[in-house]
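Take a look at this chain, tokens included, and explain the fold to me:
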Amino acid sequence: MRILHTADWHLGDRLGRIDRTDDLRKAVERVAVHCKEQAVDVLLVAGDLFSELARPDGLRETIRHWQDVFHGFLEGGGTILTLTGNHDNENFCQTLVSAMTLASPTVGRPGETVPPGRLYLAADPTFIRLEDRMGGFPVQFVLMPYPTPNRFLKSDTGLKYGSPEEKNKHLVAAWADALRTIRAHPKYDLQAPAVLGAHVHVHGSSVGPSLFRITEEEDVVVQGAELPEQFDYAALGHIHKPQWLGATHMRYSGSIERMDLGEQGDQKGVVIVEIGPDGRSEEPTVLPLPATPIYEVVVLEPADDLPRLKQEYPNASGDLVNLQIRYTAGKDQLEDVLRDLDRIFPRWYARDWKETGALGPTLASGAGGTGKGFGETVRDYLGQELIQHDEVERDAILKIADGLLKEME
């Protein structure tokens, strides 16, 4: 049975002002090509299918795109196994699971052999069996969503905690208990091939510059030293940096695209592993995925830097860029600088500028009359941020802001 392991798709995500839909859909389409070229039987997506920033209409279009891209894969007998991550909307995913269960009420009970050719989404810890299409032998798939209170702390006692640290302690214990419960289930065969799919932070992993929109204090870190012995392959999601832990068959595949500046140096990819009747039959193989360039550009002297940037970045139209700009009033025209940078880097996702000749805040106490009020500060900020927008659009936004400011007075 050939399995393609991927994770952290974050479909419908945004980076600053940039909608990442097209980038992420292209990545999904590349995954589908790998499924076809590698004769994959099971596509295992280890959590964070969707972005918490996705709108309901965007989620609908995302699922429609899935239908188009993976129609041939599913029609040919391929199976998609998925589980929820920390960025997946719990209500939406539970609704999706309920609808899928309503369509096939006898499918998906723990330990049952499920038919191929469809998608399965686990919103709670569970395990299922799939039979190899050629050999007919069963492979067990243990699916462990990201540990949240709603998914893992079902009792009233478990939901009582006085601090984030205490909550995380409960969740770490609950995650380990859920895994032990699955492996002790009467239908779980300790001798049969088994694959783990989990969206979780395993102790000892290399996070990289930062976690994706979650702090280390908020994250739930579980122990996983025993996982390589318990499973023929452990398909992990949540950490975007591709890596293996302790053994080459315990892996984070990483995200399918660079999601923020912290991932600018990551080589994205997916992992192929083959499971036979006696377990893993070969070492996992990493297949690369092209990723969008993302970087920071600092402009210190616009008159010198802009001509140089035009030469150095002639093909930056698709790049994601964080702009840091310094200019001097009377020497540089900010509006012209922003317009030129917009031509070179049309997909800038964030920008910040500072007037290098600006005086710092006064050190004298009680200085009166010279500081800007709240309303004036807001209007000035909007005026600068909208400097390149159409005049009619800019005036309309400023009029709305004025109305809101008057209501606050």
About this structure: Residues 362-370 have pLDDT under 50 and may be disordered.
